[in-house]
Amino acid sequence: MDPRAPVAEKRGGLIWLKRAVAIAVLALTVAVAFFAARRLTTRRPEPPSPMWVVKAPAAARLVPASSGVVVFSKSAEGVTAVRFPGREGLALSAADGMIGAGDGVVAVADRATGAIKYYLVDGAGATPSGATPVGTVKIPGVAVAAGDRKGLVAAVVSEGPAPGATAGSPAGAATGPAPAGAAFKLKRVDFRGRLAWEKEFSGIPLAARAWPGGLAVITVLQVKDYPSTTMIAVKDNVAVECKAIPGFARSVEVHLQAGLIISIAGPSVYAHELDGRLVWSVEPGAVPADIAVCEGGVLVACQKENRGGFGGLFVRDSVTMYDRQGARVWRTEVPPGVSRVRAWKEGVLVGGSSGVTALGASGSTQWELKLPSPVKAMEVSNDEFTLYVLTEAGELGAYRLKP
Q: CB neighbours (10 Å) of residue 400?
């Protein structure tokens, strides 16, 4: 046996070991370079920068329009101001209260005289100055109303001011208790005040809103054996009362493509068809804070429950998407303090304590817009190019979503 053989074998083993180490180092280098390049190419988009920021009351209500946003606010003296930020000279004010908005029309009522003024804020025929109403109708006792391109759907409770209603309340919401056995008349009038029809319902009307296509929904509180909420859908001059849901409906949206009325009451989210039938309901597992509709279904923003012990450790603020049949599609945790959710053509926008978070169509985080104060209200313009955010510090900013 050659005495040099073991030495040669040892040297050969070292050579193969060095080659293996070199290959491993090369593979690791390639992997690091690959993931670094991938990270650079998949870097999150930058959040939008503000086009302008103005002062606005934190309690103001935002109404989106094609060319911007309309801001409604009420002073300590009870004067309701209507502003068009970013459009100089467009403003109006009166001792009125906004009682309805939707489908490019805003209705403002003087509760002392019963006069309701219409303002077009969208599209062809919109008032150039915003200061002159396109029509005025006198309906004493109106509580809430929703305007569209043809006229107004008004809930009338008496020949005087609505019970519990306060001038300037958002969407005409009643603030006092609803008396048992309360009733009201629902009236459909055109811009000249001509009555098309009227129908009587029980309960106290709380809010009204209109959507494109002549659809209006009136939220009604029922106080009988226990508090409950009904929604009245008005479509093609037909008023249908939806099946009652327990508690008070805090938010109501309509999915026009699916023909569904979506609402939040207590810990649940409900879906009614326009014929009044309750088709599904879900409990997201946390407190629903806001809802929005998107092409594929419904978005629900939930806040972490204020639980004691260890139960609250496993619940986070989140946004969940449900399809049109109420089945969960995805769920994403979001920064704490979620208060608003809105859909737009590239995904979902979520407002919370730290600002606005943009989610993609599958729920993945796209960008985060940090703000110095929690989001109080948030709307996307009807052309979906601009995001308007009102903070609790009283700053209203406009952010361009797409150039």
A: 13
From CA 292, how far away is CA 301, in angstroms rounded? 9
Contact call for residues 220 and 230 (beta carbons, < 8 A): yes
Distance CA 83, CA 74 (A): 11
Q: What are the beta bridge partners of residue 211?
A: 215
Beta bridge pairs of residue 53:
397
* Per-residue pLDDT tens over the stretch 303-351: 985 544 444 455 579 999 999 999 999 999 999 899 999 999 899 999 9
Concatenated DSSP letters for 269-299?
EEEEETTS-EEEEE--SSEEEEEEEETTEEE
Looking at the DSSP bridge assignments, the partners of residue 187 are: 154, 198
SS3 114: coil
* pLDDT tens digits, one per residue of 182-210: 899 999 988 778 899 999 999 999 888 88
Instruction: Name the residue among 92, 97, 93 with its Cα closest to residue 113.
Output: 97
Fill in the amino acid letter for 117. Answer: K
Closest of 83, 105, 18 to residue 398, by C-alpha: 83
Render 165-207 in DSSP notation, one character per residue.
B-TT-GGG-B-SPPPTT-EEEEEEEETT--EEEEEEEESEEEE
The pTM (predicted TM-score) of the whole model is 0.78
301: left (phi over 0), alpha (psi -120 to 50) or beta: beta
Two structure tokens written together for 338: 């979620």
Distances (CA, A) of 131 to 92, 116, 117, 134, 156: 5, 14, 11, 10, 26
**What is the Cα Rg of the chain in Å?**
28
Phi, psi of 150, rounded to the nearest 5 degrees = -105, -20
Q: If you count them, how many residues does the chain have?
A: 403
With the CA atoms of 11, 16, 21 and 27 taken in that order, what torsion angle do they form, in degrees rounded to the nearest 10?
160
Q: Which tokens hold the place of 214?
A: 């002549």
Tokens 């988009």, located at residue: 45
Give CA separation, 306 vs 123, 287, 315, 333, in Å: 44, 9, 9, 17
